[in-house]
């Protein structure tokens, strides 16, 4: 599905004034790019996961997410329409999480950004070294 470009001014001009609610666009961006949101979305691109499978898969990235934080992340992404929660009435309870079409679209964008960071990390490290060297000499 083609998505039209949003003018940069629209993205950047919607700032938060003291006491105002966060801009809805930025709030969604925060959810999708949060520490756990990124990992959940990317992991669910492959296939649906149960809660414990998802938690173990995230731990495989060297990140230990608490049950509370994973639950909050899943609820937030479900509320935003990115995840589907399928609770089966069996004993023991079985709950599977999968991406909705909207979630798959967001996850592919997040994965693209994550892949870009891996590819360009060397350039970032070089830039940091140049910056730090210039600061030391100043």
The number of E-state strands comes to 3
Q: State the end-to-end distance.
A: 50 Å
Coarse shape? elongated
Low-confidence stretches: 16-20
Number of helices: 6
Helical fraction: 55-70%
Radius of gyration: 19 Å
Read across the widest sheet, the strand sequence of neighbours is 1-3-2
- Mean pLDDT, rounded to whole units? 88
Q: What is the N-to-C order of secondary-structure elements (H for helix, E for strand)?
A: HHHEHHEEH
Query: Biggest β-sheet, characterized?
Result: 3 strands, antiparallel
Strand content: 5-15%
**Classification by helices and strands:** mainly alpha
Write up what this structure looks like.
- The protein is mainly alpha-helical and 138 residues long.
- α3 (35-44) packs across α6 (101-137).
- Strands 1-3-2 form a 3-stranded antiparallel β-sheet.
- The model is unreliable at 16-20 (pLDDT under 50).
- The protein has helices spanning 8-13, 24-32, 35-44, 51-59, 67-79, 101-137; strands at 49-50, 83-88, 94-99.
- The protein is elongated.
Task: Provide a quick synopsis of the model.
This protein is mainly α and 138 residues long. The protein is built from six helices and three strands. The protein has helices at 8-13, 24-32, 35-44, 51-59, 67-79, 101-137; strands at residues 49-50, 83-88, 94-99.
Lay out the secondary structure.
Elements: H1 8-13, H2 24-32, H3 35-44, E1 49-50, H4 51-59, H5 67-79, E2 83-88, E3 94-99, H6 101-137
Helix pairs in contact: 3-6
Keywords, please?
138 residues, single chain, mainly alpha, three-stranded antiparallel beta sheet, elongated, 3 strands
């Amino acid at each position: 599905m083609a998505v039209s470009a949003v003018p940069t001014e629209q993205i950047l001009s919607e700032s938060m004034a003291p006491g105002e609610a966060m801009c809805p666009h930025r709030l969604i961006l925060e959810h999708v790019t949060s520490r756990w949101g990124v990992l959940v979305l990317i992991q669910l691109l492959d296939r649906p996961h149960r809660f414990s499978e998802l938690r173990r898969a995230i731990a495989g990235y060297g990140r230990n997410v608490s049950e509370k934080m994973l639950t909050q992340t899943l609820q937030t992404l479900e509320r935003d329409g990115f995840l589907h929660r399928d609770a089966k009435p069996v004993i023991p309870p079985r709950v599977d999480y999968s991406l909705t079409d909207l979630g798959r679209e967001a996850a592919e964008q997040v994965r693209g950004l994550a892949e870009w960071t891996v590819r360009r990390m060397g350039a970032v490290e070089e830039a940091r070294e140049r910056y730090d060297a210039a600061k030391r000499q100043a």
